[in-house]
């Protein structure tokens, strides 16, 4: 509660960037695929990751195939059998991809902090004038 | 033609970034709205901009309303009458928004050149091994 006290609009803290990498002639990597990879890493299962993202298993599986097709090394590794009757996890290349993607987002935010704050201020001043008018 | 000679895959030159700005609790600004603004600036008309983007006038108009609602100052200005029987153009705030957005994309690319090239190489090596196998 204390954290909110500085502002009436606690949610308006900073602009976030959604970034999609467009590999020309090859494919796209965006927030959805990266989130799926992180969920697979957490759950060690494609179907559990799909459930966590409210996505069909088929869609998750196609996204994984897509990622494995884009890169020289597999990104997700599946196995069969064992006590958990199969599962999936990220390969080293998969871990590297997630880390690289997150670094790209973070560096983009860092490189643009001033202009992003300026854009947000020009939007928030509208919100402020609305609040004071109501 | 000469520019292509260094590579068999001339299209695979660099990763491009599609960036959406998420203003928390306020709205989104992404490549589609920015392209619409640039088309409005070029054509001085919302309907001509919509046609250029193969978008319905209604959709273009809603996107413009959305942008005008987000910011303190209007982004697109419409007028009626005159020899062209009305039209639209960007306000100064609109020009600033387009310039700021494009600066964000350019700075993000610049700040991440090394890691983006690394990601592209790890994808292209797959393409190369496919080409040589076929």
Please identify the structural class of chain A as seen in this structure: alpha+beta
Mean pLDDT of chain A: 87
Q: Name the shape of chain A in a single word.
A: elongated
Radius of gyration of chain A: 20 Å
> How many DSSP helices of chain A?
5
Give the quaternary arrangement of the chains: homodimer
Distance between the termini of chain A: 25 Å
**Percent of residues in beta strands of chain A:** 5-15%
Q: Could you tell me the CATH topology label of the domain at 29-118 in chain A.
A: Arc Repressor Mutant, subunit A
Strands of the biggest beta sheet of chain A: in what spatial order?
1-2
Query: Which architecture of the domain at 29-118 in chain A does the CATH hierarchy give at level 2?
Result: Orthogonal Bundle
Query: How would you characterize the largest beta sheet of chain A?
Result: 2 strands, antiparallel
């Amino acid at each position: 509660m204390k954290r909110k006290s500085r502002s009436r609009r606690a949610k308006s803290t900073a602009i976030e960037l959604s970034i999609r990498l467009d590999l020309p002639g090859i494919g796209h990597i965006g927030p959805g695929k990266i989130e799926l990879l992180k969920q697979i890493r957490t759950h060690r299962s494609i179907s559990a990751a799909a459930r966590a993202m409210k996505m069909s298993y088929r869609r998750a599986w196609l996204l994984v195939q897509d990622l494995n097709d884009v890169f020289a090394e597999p990104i997700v590794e599946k196995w069969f059998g064992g006590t958990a009757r199969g599962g999936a996890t990220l390969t080293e290349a998969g871990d590297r991809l997630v880390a690289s993607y997150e670094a790209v987002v973070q560096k983009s935010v860092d490189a643009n902090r001033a202009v992003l704050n300026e854009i947000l201020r020009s939007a928030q001043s509208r919100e402020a004038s609305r609040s004071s008018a109501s």
